Model the fold of this input.
Amino acid sequence: MKKNSKPSGFSTRAIHAGQEPDLETGAVSPPIYPTSTYVQQAIGKNKGYEYARVSNPTRTRLEKNLAALEGGIASRVFASGMAAINAITTMYKSGDHVVCGNNLYGGTPRLFTQVLAGHGIEFAYVDTSGVEGVKNVERALRKNTRMVFVETPTNPLMALSDIQAIARVCHRRSTAELVVDNTFMSPYFQQPLALGADMVVHSTTKFLNGHSDGLGGVVVCTKPEQIEQLSFVQKAAGAILSPFECWLILRGVKTLAVRMEQHDSSGRIVAKFLAGHKKVKRVFYPGLPDHPQYALAKRQMSGFGSMISFEAGSLSNANKMLKKVRICSLAESLGGVETLISHPATMTHAAVGKKGRKEIGITDGMVRISVGIENVEDIIADLDQALHAI
Ligand SMILES: *Cc1c(COP(=O)(O)O)cnc(C)c1O
Done:
């Protein structure tokens, strides 16, 4: 695969991998199996399913599908994105060391520092973005570093980390595995495993499902031992995804390619509009030529997506405009068909604290938009009238 080309055959895989018609009835849409247990033919003789925490046919289909989209050997799905990230960390023990980006989805450092650090896993937070980021990761690696965890682009600053260069450093200098949170780009625009990452995680709650109607998370793997461990965690810890949610995501991914094309096209238009607006001080979007990692964005991703942040100048300005939006909904989350707008300092990144936010550059005037697939003229008109309230 050319590094930044769209993965070939993507839509076909999205619609067909794991989505084969039902053998029993020919149903084109995969059946939902709402069962907790399965009848066994004799002691030790069954059709591969025993108890639903261990496995479920709808879940098996989704796990096949998502592995095919990311180019992994297999995947395991969990009850939320956080449950998926937590499942990975069960591979690590007290005394292990993890290097991670200093600007992650707010829930990730909360899990790391408030839950796992207490279990003896050590975390080092570094700026993993740009050329310096690769050196920062290299400097932070230790003998006992087991994982490097990177989110690119970051939330909400849209900084990009060089997946290929960081993967090389991990594999040359340590035994650490590189895990990439690919939620913002989806496998349609970014294929971390093809760039050398060892695992990919997603909050399927966002673009993969795409309709703001179900939580979920996935880990896509490159090695059988990772899958073995995650299957064990599903069985042992039990934070599995319900068959109905699995079905929602199977349904959502069928339109992932066309949705992402529209998200990307509208994202570019909205970013340009904001960059030219007199009430907007600064725009953070990897598709703008003044973005510090614009060259990396073009090399590493095959689109720029629809996540945009901008600086409204102050908390009061942000509040004035957020009160006025009509089509854009003031809400947490992202990646749905509807445009969502949020205020990171008081919403997604409130748990990071004022000092933490200042260190990474999240201001009180920062606003984040997940551009949906409504008519882009309507989105722009809505933002324009709301910005005039400033
Ligand atoms: C939402 C999100 C998560 C957490 O996923 P949940 O499904 O809400 O648990 C993790 N990473 C990123 C980048 C996210 O946007």
About this structure: The pocket of pyridoxal-5'-phosphate is lined by residues 80-82, 105, 107, 151, 155, 181, 183, 203, 205-206, 215, 217 (CB under 6 Å). The chain has a mean pLDDT of 96.
